[in-house]
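DM from R.C. (forwarded with permission)

"hey, sorry to bug you on a friday — could you get me a structure for this? deadline for the figure draft is monday and I only need the backbone to look sensible"
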Amino acid sequence: MPTSAPAAAHALGDVTASDSTLRRFLHGLPGVDAVGLEARAASLGTRSIKTTAKAYAIDLAISMVDLTTLEGADTPGKVRALGAKAALPDPTDRTAPTTAAVCVYPDMVAVAKEAVAGSGVRVASVATAFPAGRAALAVKLADVRDAVAAGADEIDMVIDRGAFLAGKYLKVYDEIVAVKEASGAARLKVIFETGELSTYDNIRRASWLGMLAGADFIKTSTGKVAVNATPANTLLMLEAVRDFRAQTGVQIGVKPAGGIRTTKDAVKFLVLVNETAGEDWLDNHWFRFGASSLLNDLLMQRQKLATGRYSGPDYVTVD
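My reply, with the result:
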């Protein structure tokens, strides 16, 4: 199976050699047929998943969740509780899989790391002046290094949307490269904030820009704006990682984040993955859900399949 690599751009020659060559490449990507994209996403969302397949999909989705708390009111106690839930999502049924990761601010990484020790759950940290990304590069890199030093396994960075929208593509590229280097062994997820990029063409360009710069994952959003992950923008990013692997041999992950709250939503996204990128991405090494409330609904639906009864929200812990 192909693996991620920081030197992915080598397979595409010197497209990142200058601002002009990078612009020429990104603007030479095929334009997005918005109507066709949305129609295909809607069509795939009508697939019916039942019984055994649904049980498999629920467990797979649980294993793909980045259980997240990114609030100013986060406390060590809240993060410990989140870590305990990630490691043992359903205390009444130890066959339930662990989540992929917990995602916290850099100052909570050490607490989260201790909370999930020995469970296999990773610790992800947002960085680079999340969520706006409005800070000097030196500040952003210090943010990343602090998170890594505290034990973060993964870094979720935000791109400079202002620079991207102004057409300063090489500036954005260089920043991602610098963050990738500062991340060391931690896997890097690059957040585009698709709701602020305005067009599908921009989302496609941002996807390729992030992958060229060495992203291990491309991620839709911070969850802090009005429009976050949608089936259409996630489908577009799945097409990008599929095409990128076809050209470079390098596989990149995808993480939709924000607004995915129900099992039905999660299953729709898994269908998108399978039908667009393929089975190789149906693994939490390559696909994640950025979510906080999704896990509760997945657990309730899992209990219903196992017992025939819908337990309701009082039977799962509140994040």
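R.C.: lifesaver. Residues 1-9 have pLDDT under 50 and may be disordered.
me: no worries. The longest strand covers residues 122-127.
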